[in-house]
Amino acid sequence: MTTLQASPGPPDAPPPARDGRRYEVVDGRLLITGAQPPAHHAAVIALMILLKQACPPNLLVSVGSVAFRPTPHTTLRPDLLVCPRNTSVTQPPLLVVEVLSPSTRTTDVVLKRALYETHQVPSYWLLDPTTQELTILALTPTGYTCQAVLQAEETFHATHPFPVDLTPAALTH
């Protein structure tokens, strides 16, 4: 059963980060991500603002306060997610976004992509503030398919989970 939990979550879930680190559990193993650079935080905030402005009232844009628990032994805290306002739903989030940094690149591009795909997250975006690149992945019956890879000033009109125009340079400067 897949659930979304608001912080602090069940007793066996990792605590919400209060020290600048992110705590996640994958198959019972604790993953700790250290504090991220200012460019990472700026990109998360810029994307949060853009998504909140376009978000319909029945959905929630969350930065770090909602944990995705696809199994009892897996708790993921993406940089940003969009889900129904009722955070106790038994469905995956509609959108998960990870902002890449040198310390998280492999985890986000390989491990988390596989986890989000396995647990049926419909949209997965990867934003690289260093290269001003945004990758938009959409779930299909055979797995994630790349809808777009945007560079700097290129713009993409996303339709899922709601209509929004995305330009990497606007999110990363």
| Strand portion | 35-45%
The main β sheet shows up as: 6 strands, mixed
Mean pLDDT: 87
The helix/strand order is EEEHEEEEEHEEEEEH
Give a written overview of the molecule.
The N terminus is likely disordered. With 173 residues, the protein is of the alpha+beta class. It is globular and about 40 Å long.
State the gist of this model.
This protein is an alpha+beta fold.
Helices and strands in order:
Layout: E1 3-6, E2 22-26, E3 29-33, H1 38-54, E4 59-62, E5 66-71, E6 74-76, E7 80-84, E8 95-99, H2 105-118, E9 123-128, E10 133-140, E11 143-151, E12 156-158, E13 164-166, H3 168-172
Parallel strand pairs: 8-9
Antiparallel strand pairs: 1-5, 2-3, 4-7, 5-6, 7-8, 9-10, 10-11, 12-13
Relevant terms:
single chain, 173 residues, alpha+beta, three-stranded antiparallel β-sheet
